[in-house]
Amino acid sequence: MNALVLAAEEAKSPLFPDRWEMLITFIGFVILLFIAFKFIVPAFEKVYKDRADAIEGGLAKAKAAQAEAKAARDEYNQQLESARLEAQKIREEARSEGEKILADFKDRANLESARITENAHKAIEAERAAAVVSLRDEVGTLATQLASKIVGESLNDDDRANRVVDRFLADLDAEQGRTGAAR
């Protein structure tokens, strides 16, 4: 009985499991490893590869998008600079055109002013000439009447009257020239 008890105790030892249990566990472990390497690991590898490809593709797309955005920004900056230069050119042209228009208006105003001044001088000269003629006639008439009273004879003869008036006016102009020079 001792041997039986020993055999039973030997079979129950947790440190030494039964050989059949060990063999079945080992075979199950090998089958599990085979299934894992045959089906599960390739599936994980595929998922890993897909994710890596997706990440790399995403990075490539991000780099492409970033390059495209940079190109678009550079193009926008070029267009903006071009627009600034165009606006500056337009402002300069407008300023130049404004200066030309202003110069043209000044020239027109100066010409108009000169024309008006010339017309005014002509009008004044014409009025002066008319006044001188009118004054000569009145002075001549008065001089003729005065000379008639002084001389005591009538100076109705036009030629004689004209000579007397011309001599009187010449004397008057000479006297006026001497007083103007003395001043």
How do you describe this structure in short?
The chain is mainly alpha-helical and 183 residues long.
Can you give a write-up of this model?
This protein is mostly helical. The protein has one domain. Helices cover 92% and strands 0% of the residues. The protein is built from three helices and no strands. Helix 2 crosses helix 3. The protein is rod-shaped. The model has no long low-confidence stretch (mean pLDDT 82).
Total domains: 1
Estimated share of beta-strand residues? under 5%
For the record, give the distance between the C-alpha atoms at the N and C termini, rounded to a whole number: 178 Å
The helix content, as a percent range, equals over 70%
Compressed to H and E, one letter per element, the order equals: HHH
**Mean of all residue-level pLDDT scores:** 82
Radius of gyration over all CA atoms, rounded:
66 Å
Which structural class do you get from the secondary structure elements? mainly alpha
Mass-distribution shape: rod-shaped
Put simply, the count of helices is 3
Uncertain spans: none
Number of strands: 0
Membrane topology: Single-pass membrane protein
GO molecular function: hydrolase activity; proton-transporting ATP synthase activity, rotational mechanism; proton-transporting ATPase activity, rotational mechanism
Keywords: ATP synthesis, Cell membrane, CF(0), Coiled coil, Hydrogen ion transport, Hydrolase, Ion transport, Membrane, Transmembrane, Transmembrane helix, Transport
Organism: Kocuria tytonis
